[in-house]
Amino acid sequence: xxxxxxENLEVEFRTYGGTVHAVRDVSFSLEEGKTLAIVGESGxxxxxxxxxxxxxxxxxxxxxxxxxxxxxxxxxIRDHRIDGKDIRGREVGMIFQDPMTSLNPTMTIGDQIAxxxxxxxxxxxxxxxxxxxxxxxxxxxxxxxxxxRQYPFEFSGGMLQRAMIAMxxxxxxxxxxxxxxxxxxxxxIQAQILDLLAELQRNTGMAxxxxxxxxxxxxxxxxxxxxxxxxxxxxQGSADxxxxxxxxxxxxxxxxxxxSNDATDxxxxxxAGSPPDLFAPPSGCGYCARCxxxxxxxxxxxxxxxxxxxxxxxxxxxxEPDLEAPGIFRR
Length: 331
Description:
- The protein is of the alpha/beta class.
- The protein is built from 11 helices and 12 strands.
C-alpha cells in the first residue's frame, strides 16, 4: 500500500475577479523511500497541490472542492487532520521555497529548530536545543553549537537551506516535501543540497515530494515524475519514461527548452504562447493553444489521463488510435 495516495484533488480560490481553478483532478501516489518530482512552470499548481494537502492554503479564499488524500490509509482531508499537529510537522515535513522569508528573523536558528520538537513531541527546551545542534551537524553546517546561537541574517543562502532541512526532519517525518529547495542557489551548492537530501533519505527511509521546474534536478534525484500544466497532471511515469520516452507535447517542449551538456550547439526552442486563464479553464486540452500538434478534438474535449505503456500515463489525444492523429508518439 502506498504511503500517500491523492485522488481527484481539486482546489479553487474565490476572488473578486471570479473563481480560480488552481488544481484540477490531480491524482498521484507516493511509496515509502521513493522520490516523486512534481514538475511544471510557475503557476501550474504544483505548490498549491501539496500545500492544500498539508492545510497550508488560506480557507477562504482557498477551498478543496473535491478529492481525497489518504495518508497511511486515512483520509486526512475528510477527517480534517491536515491541520493537526500529528500530521503536519510530525509525519510530513516541509522545506519552503525561500528560507530567508520562511525563518523567523527574531529567533536564533537553534531555537527555531528546537521549537519544532517542543511543539510536536513535547520535548523539554534543553533536550530540544541539544537535538537541534545534532540536526545542524547532520546537515553539515560547521561549528554547530556556535551556529545554533546565530540568527538567520548571519547565514548564507546555502546554510539557510540546510537549516530549513534540519527543521523539517527534526521529528523524523515519513514524508518530506521540498518546494524548490535549490532555487537561487549556485550550481555547487545545489549539488550539495541534493546530495544531502539523498543521504538523509537513505539513512531514514523517508519519502520525498520534490516540487521544481528544474528538469536537471529531476533527472538527478527522482524515481517518479508528474508533469503538471494548467492545474492538472499531463504526464506521469518513471523518470526514465518521462525523460527518454516523453508522451506529451508539453514534456517534449520542456526538454527542447532545456540546455544539454551533450549538444552544446543545439538551439534551445522556447514554448510559444502563454498558459490558459484558470478563471475559465478551456473545455478541451489545456495545452491546445500552444501545442504544435493540436487537432479539432483537442479544442473541444478534455483528454483523459490514460496509459501509453505500463505505469506510464499521458493526457493527450495523440495516443488515441481511433482519431486521425499525427502519430508522433507511435511506438
